[in-house]
Design a protein that fits this description.
Blueprint (H helix, E strand, L loop, with lengths): L4 H5 L8 H11 L3 E5 L6 H14 L3 E6 L2 H15 L4 E4 L4 E2 L5 E5 H9 L8 E6 L11 H10 L5 E6 L5 H12 L2 E5 L6 E10 L4 E6 L1 E2 L2 E2 L1 H8 L10 H13 L8 E2 L3 H10 L5 E4 L3 H13 L7 H15 L4 H6 L2 H9 L2 E4 L5 H12 L5 E4 L13 E4 L3 E3 L4 E3 L2 H8 L10 E7 L6 H9 L13 H10 L2 H9 L2 H6 L3 H22 L6 H17 L2 H13 L4 E7 L2 E13 L2 E7 L5 E5 L11 E2 L11 H13 L12 H5 L1 H5 L8 H28 L3 H14 L3 E2 L4 E2 L1 H6 L7 H9 L8 H9 L19 H24 L12 H8 L4 H7 L4 H21 L3 H14 L2 H7 L10
Length: 894
């Protein structure tokens, strides 16, 4: 034990726990440590001890975190402990005091230092890897393993993790790679957790809040309540129906009850009445978080005093006072303040960081009593509550719904219970017709959170390995990965999972089979026609755009849109950045909007209606009068009533025999599920094959692609000049970025046009709705975008041929926004015109700035480097730069 341990721990007012002492002993003994403990249990104390002892020994310490928000928070925390002059911050957005003895950074920044052989590593003594369970993240996970493998061996690791069931395996792997490592596990929560179940019983018109466990066993009252619920099961699920009948018989003839999920307002009032606030409501939908907060205020919920509202006002002014009033208006500032002062708030990635920080500050200070948040709040940020409410145990992944894993449930409920304030915390799961109580109890009672490596070779990694190591050593290092360590242990489980998925796939394929024809052929026709509508007809659309701009109020045209099919009167026309937009009214007085995308040909005037003298298109009376005049007006016969491309282009699919199948909707749904499951089966099969091979062979496939493109010479084990450039590109689609630069597609451009094209390499459209037609400033830039898309297709073809994971393709959806922002357009105009959330805009723009800054270093052309630097500087302004700035530490709430 160090002689100065008492001095190092003197700052803490609370007693040191058993697991913390064990970690101290391991660090004093020169070991690496892996600490797995529940949220709020004090893992950070171990990190702080390691940092203190390292700095006292005359060496530097780095604290790494997975996200910039957490890096900023740790920066503030460490400044409060050590002073501003001893702590630095490096996140890409911020470079503050980088030579300080203690530096906080994202894990990617440290990885880049390692590959760049930075001299700052020479006197480095310790690295804290916070949230190390992120190594199972598909895209970012490999970074953690790269750091652990490649860090100089004199550097010790302090790995902090949520509770995982295989922490010993992780520690054993680190021991193999780096030397003696101690696994420190704490299962006991600092505040006892009570798992509860809340249902609304409409039979008796009351809420029922029941403990999930009583005396260590499943609560039979909750079981009986759930089994008494009247549920409707699909007729096609015969097995499920039999199970339902069994449950009914097992209920012993108890009264059947009409149970429904409790409403948010009534749930909040119940928690308030039972003194279970403050609470975090986890809702896996951004829009529903906003709806929930608004509905509470609209229902008259107010959880704050006048004094608390005044304190909230001070925090708002302090953090948001510098933002432009127009920007605040487009961000819904008035509603945001109204909710905060009522003691409720939303918190999700669609909000700009300063607004999220206001919510966090108010909640930590005890001023906001209820936060409706997505699961991103569970990552790292210190926001404990007395209660956590989980609305659903399933979430939508973008393709299908998945049940929460035990690890995710533990991460969410880890926020329940404030150490030093609450005797216990509560996790409240709401009743759902889709999830059985026994599944809820199984999840709440599970402690298994198995950490799995997501390590895989990347192009940038391959280039850096060639640049840094000899061939044999590079292959050996890949074989040292945690993924390789785990490989031989997972085969049986994966094979069993594969068999289950294959069985489910067979059932879905049988359900999707149509007696009238090939359902897959029909789906391909539908998809092809959808793609044709999405990407085709550009020249025709431009012609239609011009015609729409010439239409005057009162002109009658024929429109097919949604359920409407018939003549409409043009009320107004407007030219927007994304094209012409008409506002029309039909014979029923219903107002519709129409764009060029709604017409397959230039619309012909069928006649005209004299508009009422008092022009007021927003008033119902005005629209009804226009509709009346339309009904009374004689019109020409429309030449083509199939103006909507959806009608015209679906002709092949509509003629297909399967289109007449009376069960088409069910079969199409089953076919879609089967297609997704088929992809999953293929993925699992590939993983099973991959586990029987080494990562070194995957590495060789990566090298094969790079050699085909002229980035490496495998025989001489060296990089070409293009390979040297690739080694300095840190991006999810690194090879695509390098190929675009190499082709000169970013040369000779203005800053705004450069940003527009680079954004296609950053943005990913995730909405289920189709993206708008891409906009570029001129035909030359559009042509360059088409060449970028062609390069991407070529790279993807090489990847498929080589058996390498395909990169994410470019997406032009953000191009117009990037152009406007870098050209100087205001935040309010950009976000409002493009119906984009502030948070999405800020996050994408910061990613754009990051790639532009890389291009300002690695682009071969000096003019391109200058344009990239100018574009990055122009983009990093206003709410974007303000969102990146770390706020200084504040006093802890009493």
């Amino acid at each position: 034990m160090r002689s100065d341990r008492d001095e190092l721990t003197a700052r803490y007012s609370f007693p040191i726990d058993r697991f913390q002492y064990e970690a101290f002993d391991a660090l004093d003994d020169g070991k690496h440590v892996v600490v797995a403990a529940p949220t709020g249990s004090g893992k950070t104390v171990v990190a702080e001890y390691g940092i203190d002892m390292t700095v006292r020994d005359g060496k530097r310490a780095f604290y790494t975190a997975p996200v910039k928000a957490l890096s900023n928070q740790k920066y503030r925390d460490l400044i409060a402990l050590h002073g501003e002059d001893k702590v630095g911050l490096l996140t890409g957005d911020n470079s503050i005091n980088g030579d300080a003895p203690i530096v906080v950074m994202t894990t990617e920044v440290l990885r880049n230092m390692i590959y760049g052989r930075s001299r700052t590593l020479d006197d480095l003594g310790l690295v804290v890897l916070d949230e190390v369970h992120f190594l199972q993240d598909t895209f970012r996970g490999p970074v953690w393993e790269e750091v652990m493998i490649h860090l100089p061996h004199h550097v010790r690791l302090v790995c902090l993790s949520a509770t995982v069931s295989n922490v010993a395996e992780l520690a054993e792997w680190i021991s193999t790679v780096r030397g003696r490592t101690e696994a420190i596990t704490e299962l006991r929560r600092p505040v006892e957790l009570t798992n509860q179940y809340l249902a609304k019983d409409r039979t008796e018109d009351r809420l029922q809040l029941l403990s999930i466990f009583v005396g260590g066993a499943v609560n039979r009252d909750a079981v009986q309540l759930d089994e008494s619920a009247i549920r409707h099961t699909p007729k096609s699920s015969a097995g499920r129906s039999r199970k339902e009948s069994n449950r009914t018989r097992n209920a012993g003839g108890a009264q059947r009850r009409k149970l429904v999920p409790p409403g948010r307002v009534e749930t909040l009032k119940l928690l308030n009445d039972r003194e279970m606030l403050p609470a975090i409501f986890f809702i896996f939908s951004r829009s529903q978080c906003d709806v929930a907060a608004k509905s509470c205020v609209d229902a008259g919920v107010c959880l704050t005093t006048e004094a608390e509202q005044a304190e909230i006002g001070v925090i708002i002014d302090d953090r948001l006072g510098a933002l432009d009033s127009a920007d605040l208006a487009v961000l819904g500032f008035e509603q945001f303040v109204r909710q905060l002062k009522a003691g409720v708030a939303a918190h999700h990635a669609g909000m700009v960081p300063p607004m999220k920080e206001v919510v966090e500050a108010c909640f930590i200070a005890g001023l906001v009593k209820a936060v409706f948040a997505t699961e991103t709040l569970a990552v790292g940020i210190n926001m404990p509550a007395r209660s956590v409410v989980i609305e659903k145990l399933t979430k939508f992944t973008g393709e299908h719904h998945e049940q929460l894993t035990p690890g995710e449930y533990t991460q969410l409920t880890g926020r329940a219970g404030r150490r030093g304030i609450d005797d216990r915390g509560s996790a409240v799961v709401l009743w759902s017709p889709w999830v059985r109580f026994d599944d809820v109890a199984k999840l709440a009672g599970s402690s298994r959170f198995h950490l799995r490596s997501a390590f895989r070779p990347t192009y940038n990694m391959a280039a850096n390995l060639i640049r840094t190591y000899e061939s044999e050593r590079a292959h050996d290092l890949l074989n040292l990965s945690f993924a390789q360590y785990q490989a031989d242990r997972d085969i049986v489980k994966m094979q069993a999972r594969l068999e289950r998925r294959r069985q489910a796939l067979s059932e879905l394929q049988a359900e999707a089979t149509s007696p009238l024809g090939d359902i897959d052929e029909y789906r391909k026709l539908r998809n092809a026609e959808r793609e044709a509508r999405r990407f085709g007809h550009v020249e025709r659309v431009e012609e239609i755009e011009a015609a729409l701009r010439r239409l005057s109020p009162g002109t009658v045209v024929y429109l097919v849109k949604g359920k409407h099919r018939g003549p409409v009167v043009v009320m107004t026309s407007a030219s927007r950045k994304d094209g012409a937009r008409l506002r029309v009214v039909n014979k029923s007085g219903v107002s519709l909007q129409a764009t060029a995308e709604d017409f397959d040909a230039v619309p012909a005037a069928l006649g005209s209606v004299k508009m009422p003298s008092n022009f007021a298109p927003n008033r119902k009376e005005f629209r009804q009068e226009v509709a009346y005049r339309l009904r009374k007006t004689s019109l020409a016969q429309p030449q083509n009533t199939s103006n909507r491309r959806g009608r015209h282009d679906n002709i092949q699919a509509d003629l297909h025999p399967v289109a007449r199948d009376p069960k088409l909707k069910q079969r199409m749904q089953a076919a879609g599920q089967a297609a997704r499951l088929d992809r999953e089966v293929t993925e699992i099969e590939g993983r099973v094959r991959g586990k029987t091979q080494t990562l070194a062979r995957d590495f060789d496939r990566i090298l094969g692609v790079l050699e085909a493109y002229g980035y490496v010479d495998v025989a001489s084990w060296g990089l070409t000049s293009h390979g040297e450039m690739l080694a300095r590109i840190f991006h999810e689609s690194d090879l695509l970025v390098a190929e675009v630069v190499r082709a000169g597609l970013l040369d000779g451009l203005s800053a705004a046009d450069l940003a527009s094209l680079v954004s296609t390499l950053v943005y990913e459209h995730r909405s289920p709705e189709p993206p708008p037609r891409p906009w570029f400033s001129n035909n030359e830039i559009r042509g360059r975008w088409q060449r970028i898309a062609a390069i991407s297709e070529d790279v993807a073809a090489h990847e498929r041929s080589a058996g390498v994971n395909e990169h994410r393709g470019p997406d032009p959806t953000f191009a117009a926004i990037a152009y406007a922002w870098v050209a100087g357009e205001g935040f309010a105009e950009v976000v409002d015109a493009d119906e984009l959330t502030g948070g999405d805009f800020v996050r994408t723009t910061r990613q754009l700035v990051d790639l532009l800054r890389q291009l300002a270093i690695i682009a071969p052309s000096g003019a391109t480097r200058r344009a990239a630097s100018q574009a990055a500087e122009a983009a990093f302004r206003g709410v974007v730069s303000d969102s990146a700035a770390p706020t200084m530490p504040q006093a802890e709430p009493v």
